[in-house]
Amino acid sequence: MSTDGTRAVRLTRWGGPPVITEVARPVPTGEQVLIQVEAAGLCRSDLHVIDAREGALLYRTPFTLGHEVAGRVLERGPGAMGPAVGERVVVYGPWGCGSCARCAVGSENYCDRRTALDADRTGTGAGLGRDGGMADLLLVPSGRLLVPVGELAVVQAAPLSDAGLTAYHAVAGIRRAIDDDASVVVIGVGGLGHLAVQILRATTTARVLAVDVREEALALADQCGAHFATLLRPDSAAVLRDRTGGVGAVAVLDFVGGRSSLDLATGVLRPGGELVVVGSGGGELSVRKPGVLPPGTRISLPFWGTLPELEQVVALAREGVLKVEVEQFALSRALEAIEGLRSGGVRGRAVLVPD
Fold first, then answer.
1. Do the beta carbons of residue 146 and residue 126 sit within 8 Å?
2. Are 211 and 239 in contact (CB under 8 A)?
3. CATH topology of domain 167-300
4. What's the CA gap between 102 and 109, in Å, rounded?
5. DSSP string, 251-294
């Protein structure tokens, strides 16, 4: 089969580095839909995949990276549903079985057959063992996984499928606990955290307190509407508690998940509070009674989000109340963008655009 000059950023071996290479042009069959990629986000989850040792993830190499994807419908298989050819869409990234009870309501991130899919080593979504969107073209299993974005700019749309969706899903899980006097702490104001600040402001009445290790991230938190932002320091828990009137935060969204961020989270959380660990920074919590966790703490480990939630995130962005801070790179500069993200040099979200 001719490659037709179709480029892709491929992980060919565990530990990387990825390579930019030509691949065969996908041809949609059945329910499949072929997307002309116009923007693909890059995040730390990609670094975790690239850096994984062999056997740590139940995927087979090689595969194309990229799970945040926006573009236009280019071709449809004969049994395809959903958006028409030419329509601009964002791709819902977690691909489940499509038929279990959870998938039937759009919760493919929590597919009941996920374990079986992992055991088959077929991958769990775009760029996660299955070919993703850091490419000129992306073959999507079904039109059910596409959300129309209208005239929303593609560089804004692509990050919504993970950075926006994961942040929205995390906030949705704590919304019931937020009353008029509640404070919520956001740790890590990066690609996800800066959107969490905006989502909290747009959908709750919480006072939003932001923490990061970078001055530029605090400036971004202010720009996104945080009521207070501070650098991570030894006295941060006391400073934040003072900002809550001494009672502590009703919830902490930890987008870092490292040892220092979890220590801060447990130090600022009020009794009966919600600890939401989103980041994968390798930190650990000891769950015991009595222990370091405030009494009544509820811990959650959200993964991505649901298809209906992605539709809600897109709606917020189209209304202009949710804006992604983007640093744009040409697809041919993908490896440079990856290293920039690794070094902490990217503000907000890195987005690749085919050139």
1. no
2. no
3. Rossmann fold (3.40.50)
4. 9
5. EEEESS-SHHHHHHHHHHEEEEEEEEE---S-------SSSSSP
Distances (CA, A) of 348 to 166, 176, 342: 15, 28, 13
The counts of H helices and E strands in the chain are 11, 18
- Tokens coding 201: 């402001």
| pLDDT higher than 80, residue 291 | no
Q: How far apart are CA 88 and CA 202, in angstroms?
A: 25
Fold for 6-148+325-353, please state it: Quinone Oxidoreductase; Chain A, domain 1 (3.90.180)
> What pLDDT, in 10s, does the model give residues 249-266?
999 999 999 999 999 999
Round to whole Å and give the CA distance between 283 and 239: 22
Q: Which two structure tokens, joined as six digits, stand for 29?
A: 């069959």
Distance CA 217, CA 88 (A): 31
- The one-letter code for the residue type at 215 is E
**Which tens digits make up the pLDDT trace of 15-42?**
989 999 999 999 999 999 999 999 999 9
Q: What is the pLDDT of residue 348?
A: 80
**Using CA atoms, how far apart are residues 156 and 230, in angstroms rounded to an integer?**
27
